[in-house]
Amino acid sequence: MTEETPDSLIPYDEIVQEALRAVVGRVLGSVEKAGGMLPGEHHFYITFKTGAPGVSIPQHLRERFPDEMTIVLQNKFSDLKVDPRGFSVVLSFNQMPSTLEIPFAAITAFVDPAVDFGLQFQAAASDIEPTDHVDANNDAPDGDGTDGGSNVVTVDFGRKK
């Protein structure tokens, strides 16, 4: 018997990523059903790859955030719509409303600092490396969002080449 782990013919990492992204969809779907009202102190930081397939954002935002962008859903968002593929939302940037369409596959992080919960995802394309990003500052959160991260779930399966 060898100590080397055999390659899996079942794509476990993709299955787990898909299931965890469904958590984001379910949470956003419940907010949509509540008329866009977040319960209690809940608010969300959602980081996504701006160049991922299916992402639709205004050109000025794509130029400002060519790789990755973090949005905040807290006080100043409207028209949240969720479907099995992703979500769309209207946010204001410099007093200008903008519609963003974001597939769940483009999301790299989802955080609810009110309850110290977070999920981090692998980039959808295996050749995309995570890079530093600048927060979009589309909303003014009450806290700084640095709660220690004790409930952050990171899923990072290594792939054998």
Task: Describe the fold and architecture.
With 161 residues, the chain is α+β, with helices and mostly antiparallel strands. The protein has one domain (12-124): Roll (SH3 type barrels), CATH 2.30.30. The chain has helices at 12-33, 59-64; strands at 44-49, 68-73, 77-82, 86-93, 96-103, 107-112, 117-120, 151-154. The strands form 2 sheets. Strands 2-1-6-7-8 form a 5-stranded mixed beta sheet, covered by helices on one side. It has a 3-stranded antiparallel beta sheet with strand order 3-4-5. β3 (77-82) and β4 (86-93) form a beta hairpin. The protein is globular. 26% of the residues are buried. The model is unreliable at 126-131, 141-154 and 156-161 (pLDDT under 50).
Per DSSP, what share of the residues sits in E-state strands of 2 or more residues?
25-35%
Q: What is the gyration radius calculated from CA atoms?
A: 17 Å
Distance between the termini: 22 Å
CATH superfamily: SspB-like
As for the CATH topology, it is SH3 type barrels
Order of neighbouring strands in the sheet with most strands = 2-1-6-7-8
Class from secondary-structure proportions: alpha+beta
**Strands, total number:** 8
Helix content: 10-25%
Can you summarize the main beta sheet? 5 strands, mixed
Low-confidence stretches: 126-131, 141-154, 156-161
Shape: globular
Number of helices: 2
Q: What is the domain tally?
A: 1
The level 1 CATH classification is: Mainly Beta
